[in-house]
Amino acid sequence: MSQTPESLYARIRQEVAARSDRLWDVSLALHREPETAYEEHRAARLLAGELEQEGFEVERGVADLPTAFVARTGSAGGPREGPCVALLMEYDALPLLGHACGHNLIASAGLGAALAVRAAVGEVEGTLLAVGTPAEERGGGKVAEVAAGLFEGVDAALMFHPGVHDWTWAPLTASAQVRVGFHGRAAHPTGSPTEGIDALGALIQLFNTLGVLDRRLPMGSHIQGIVTDGGRATNIVPEYAEGLFGLRGGTTSALEELVEELRSCAQGVASATRTRVEVTDVGGRYEHFRDNEVLSGLFAAHLDRAGIRLSEPTAGVYLGSSDFGNVSTRVPGIHPWIAIMGSDGSDHTPEFAEAAAGPRARRVMVAAAEALACTAADVLLRPDVRERAWASLRAKAAAGQ
Fold first, then answer.
1. Which pLDDT score, from 0 to 100, does residue 2 have?
2. What is the dihedral angle through the alpha carbons of 8, 11, 15, 18, rounded to the nearest 10 degrees?
3. What's residue 393's pLDDT?
4. How far apart are CA 143 and CA 357, in angstroms?
5. What is the DSSP letter of 19?
6. In terms of Cα–Cα distance, which of 252, 225, 380 is closest to 321?
7. Could you say which residues of the chain have pLDDT below 70?
């Protein structure tokens, strides 16, 4: 390494600072024109174009997702040769609420980090990837990218998330969407009531059964359901009824157990009501997030230089789920939270969407880009960091954490 770590970090901060106006323009452009899951065509085109303009080799439409891309730079020629770091960018928005989860900031910080590392580090024996990951809010673009092998050979997957807390890592649960459909038999409820088999009654009974189950679920696990089909008319016994259930588990194994509990309850209700039931997954499952404390510790130290101090999450508080979990269980990863508004606020609100285009958000975006870039440089240039990061991941996997 031709420069000291501190001089490299200073160079990275200079490179981010030199691009800060442009990065903020990109963030605001995404914020002004929010695009929901799988529809992020303008966002993907803008981000990929910025990377291509500064010398990255860009592959669009990866993992059979039109709005996904991978931008690559480095001397090794591929992610399986030498060390490899992936900087992840999310850019999908929420229906009706726009960027009320701040993905415009995730995208611009990841972009800034990738450009700064390339400019400051230069050619190294390794590969830097900037990965465009669509549909985090619904569908799970990273689930498809993991399945397509995009993260094979990656030594670290790095991103940050704006929020209302300054936390070193994100307590994110595993999650699944499950559809339950009951088939009964239609009949007139007065003229021939004994001929009917009430599918809606079965679905309502399932909700009641799950209410009992909910009392004994472990921390981090829950089931939330809605009725998506309850029949067509009050003078017809419903022959079909359907519910959609969101399930979360503190770990991926806890989620799998909960899905089986739901299936067992549904089959029991079907047997008791003489209906027939179908239980099917909707979309890919999100695995729980597995923090890599080696990398998150480095990120926190770099962020501290910008005057933002991260702490451990509050025990027992869960922030939701993310398809980044599927990445973090396979390669060392970080997903810290940095506040862009006070802890009395919440994401997925109009107020958070407004904050994601405010002055505090800009400061956070720049600081996150710097810390991500410095952490990426640590992974690329220090074999001990890579070794410790992988050792930590394997230890947590063996412990089921």
1. 61
2. 170
3. 97
4. 28
5. H
6. 252
7. 1-2, 75-81
Residue with tokens 């975006």: 365
Predicted pLDDT of residue 401: 83
Q: What is the DSSP string of 315-359?
A: TT------THHHHHTTS-EE--EEESS-TT--SSSHHHHHHTTSH
- By the 10 Å C-beta count (0-12 exposed, 13-18 middle, 19+ buried), 133 is classed as buried
Amino acid of residue 78: G
Report the residue count for the chain: 401
The tokens for 382 are: 């220090």
Q: What is the pLDDT of residue 78?
A: 44
pTM score: 0.91
pLDDT value at residue 363: 98
Strands (E) across 22-93 are located at: 57-60, 69-74, 84-90
> Checking DSSP bridges between strand 161-163 and strand 337-339, what pairing results, if any?
parallel
Q: Rounded CA gap, 211 and 103, in Å?
A: 34
Could you give the C-alpha distances from 4 to 91, 190, 299, 347, in angstroms and in order?
Answer: 34, 85, 18, 39
